[in-house]
Amino acid sequence: MYTEIKGGITAPKGFKAAGVQAGIKKSGKHDVAVIYSTVPASVAGVCTTNTMAAAPVAVSRLAFESGIASAIVVNSGCANACTGEQGLSDANEMAQLTADLLSIPKEDVLVASTGIIGVTLPMDKVTAGIKNAVAQLGPDEQDYSTLAIMTTDTFQKHCAYEFELGGVPVRIAGIAKGSGMIHPNMATMLSFITTDAAIAPELLKQALTDAVNVSFNMISVDGDTSTNDMATVLANGLAGNKQIETQDKEYTTFKKILTEVCIFLAKQIVVDGEGATKFLELNVRGAASFADAKKTAMAIAKSPLVKTAFFGEDANWGRILCAVGYSEAAADPTKISLSIGNLTIVKQGLGAPIDEFELKKIMAEHDIRVVVDLGLGQAEATMWTCDFSYEYVKINGEYHT
């Protein structure tokens, strides 16, 4: 249905990007990025539900309301969160400067920030960085823009695909950052998606919302939901397909590929979880409802006891069942089953005979699949998480200092 292509965030027609070193980060690494559509694009976004949402989130939410945008300006190294009126003024200044440099309305600029909370932006550096980034905008600058949104990430997270809508080749691409402070709704993450598909703003919003609900809202690294989370998509229509205006076959295809992009990036965030040594896929099936399946998966995913057990390669299944029990989802201890990898270790609530050597091999793997069958219905949900290691404590103990 789709083909992986090169080019990253600028693979779709009409998009340019740049990332620069503005000196916001003490490390001197890239920290300001601009992503630009050469024509106005349909836009949709989903933001954090944290009531302490950062200033750039407030500015971007207003931009989302119009359904049209042309640019995204991002800085890393400073979250511009819990910074009061000064923070809001600075976020608006970022949008205005970007708009002036690109000769577009300020309302067409999205703003995003990530980094330390409670610190105001060094606007002299931010301003210089934005000017430099706009001057360097091009179709081959995606790697630098991806670098510029990273904080504790250890690798770049990006993908690009090509598919067809009504016989017309269409491209879609995405980048993301996130490593710690990851948990719905949403996670400490930023994700920016571009596509040259033509789609009405209201349908783009519905497609993104549905995609986020099974991707970015189904990951957890440490159970913390940040102040700055944002996932947004720009669709500029330059592919030339007939604009999607109803929920027809073309809409279904578009949403499916958008969801694939979001799931890929979400998984990459979990793989790069701070200090992570294991990537865990949690599938809860046999639930009475999707809500119950999700609650169960989330309880397991955020349990420190479960996560540390996987770090220690200890198949302590009692911790998993304990999390199921306090999830507040409907569960019957006489019907529940549990498998790790390809081994069933709990059947109808009781420990099952297992091959200890085979289980040890599974627990030593990096990617581990856990399946919990509640035995109560047909609903299921899948969530992705990672383990807790010594390195996670070290990273976060030293993050500010």
Automatic annotation (TrEMBL):
Question: Which cellular component, as a GO term, is one annotated location?
Answer: cytoplasm
Give the protein family.
Answer: Belongs to the ArgJ family.
Q: Where in the cell is it found?
A: Cytoplasm
Q: HAMAP family, alphabetically?
A: ArgJ
Q: Which reaction does it catalyse?
A: L-glutamate + acetyl-CoA = N-acetyl-L-glutamate + CoA + H(+); N(2)-acetyl-L-ornithine + L-glutamate = N-acetyl-L-glutamate + L-ornithine
Query: Per the UniProt entry, what are the Gene Ontology biological process annotations, in alphabetical order?
Result: L-arginine biosynthetic process; ornithine biosynthetic process
Catalytic residues of the enzyme: 188 (nucleophile)
Gene label: argJ
Q: Which PANTHER family match?
A: ARGININE BIOSYNTHESIS BIFUNCTIONAL PROTEIN ARGJ (PTHR23100), ARGININE BIOSYNTHESIS BIFUNCTIONAL PROTEIN ARGJ, MITOCHONDRIAL (PTHR23100:SF0)
Protein name from the UniProt record: Arginine biosynthesis bifunctional protein ArgJ
| Pathway as given in its UniProt record | Amino-acid biosynthesis; L-arginine biosynthesis; L-ornithine and N-acetyl-L-glutamate from L-glutamate and N(2)-acetyl-L-ornithine (cyclic): step 1/1; Amino-acid biosynthesis; L-arginine biosynthesis; N(2)-acetyl-L-ornithine from L-glutamate: step 1/4
Q: How does it assemble?
A: Heterotetramer of two alpha and two beta chains.
